[in-house]
Amino acid sequence: MCTSIIYTAGDKYFGRNLDLEVGFGQKVVITPHNMPLEFREMPRLEHHYAIIGISIVRDNYPLYFDGINEKGVGMAGLNFDGPAHYFPAQKGKDNIAAFEIIPYILANAASVAEAKKLLANANITNANFSDKLPASPLHWLIADKTGASVTVESTIKGLNVYDNPVGALTNNPEFPRQLVNLSNYRSISPATPKNTIAPELNLPVYSRGFGSHFLPGGMDSESRFVKVTFTKMHAPAGNSEVENITNYFHILQSVEQQKGLDEVAPDTFEYTIYSDGSNLSKGIFYYKTYDNSQINAVDMHKEDLESTELITYPVQNEQVINQQN
């Protein structure tokens, strides 16, 4: 399970928590302009926008979990097991495999509006990357540096692209139901609520944070959607890049999954393997991991974006503790 957001604080910050029970050897991967991108059904791209994000690399192909491009568009794939449905390639459609959709959109789209145009005739196919890497059941959040965002879901009904006024996404159920569910929590507030149940009674406020008394706190996707929406909508904007990216990671921490709390198989637990976020205007990619809470940064513009080869950085997992004495 996962959570993805776009956060506005002067600049826009986009990224996600990746919640799984096992890692896949993921790296920070930059796909430069001239690294050819092959697609099963679509034309090969010899030149395209540069991309940075978290990916595994197989056969020199970047299989992105999430990333941004140099134009300030971000995209993340999140688990959508159950509702997700992909189709065989269809004549007259732009047939894009699920594992290709992030590089395809980020290589071509300079805005959410352009991404929507690319998806207007799209069919997400059920092609596997390989026998060992079958198509994952996903849906996607796309956002850009204007703050616009959309949710993309391929279900048995076809491909749906929903405007996302919340700027957040988790997992099941389908996105329209997640929005409806928010109505159940419209009274949640950072402020202490008025006594409306029995105004004539002197009902004590016995704790701070009373306005969030009914805020969900579970690991399930509906609870995380509500909680991250509440946290994001009330998060402050800082006065510097450091303040803003710090606030951004605190938003994601509100729905972080700790080890030992979400059992997905006997003695096997899902947890937040990594959290990442990018400044969509500056092209700086930030991340931290479950075992290393230090914020690490890779600036795509400090690399040779005219290269023809993937640029990779190992994910830093070793915790660094500042010894003060």
UniProtKB/TrEMBL annotation:
<dbReference type="InterPro" id="IPR047711">
    <property type="entry name" value="CBAH"/>
</dbReference>
<keyword id="KW-0378">Hydrolase</keyword>
<feature type="domain" description="Choloylglycine hydrolase/NAAA C-terminal">
    <location>
        <begin position="2"/>
        <end position="313"/>
    </location>
</feature>
<dbReference type="Pfam" id="PF02275">
    <property type="entry name" value="CBAH"/>
</dbReference>
<comment type="pathway">
    <text>Lipid metabolism; bile acid biosynthesis.</text>
</comment>
<dbReference type="InterPro" id="IPR029132">
    <property type="entry name" value="CBAH/NAAA_C"/>
</dbReference>
<dbReference type="GO" id="GO:0045302">
    <property type="term" value="F:choloylglycine hydrolase activity"/>
</dbReference>
<comment type="similarity">
    <text>Belongs to the peptidase C59 family.</text>
</comment>
<dbReference type="InterPro" id="IPR052193">
    <property type="entry name" value="Peptidase_C59"/>
</dbReference>
<protein>
    <recommendedName>
        <fullName>choloylglycine hydrolase</fullName>
        <ecNumber>3.5.1.24</ecNumber>
    </recommendedName>
</protein>
<keyword id="KW-0443">Lipid metabolism</keyword>
<dbReference type="InterPro" id="IPR029055">
    <property type="entry name" value="Ntn_hydrolases_N"/>
</dbReference>
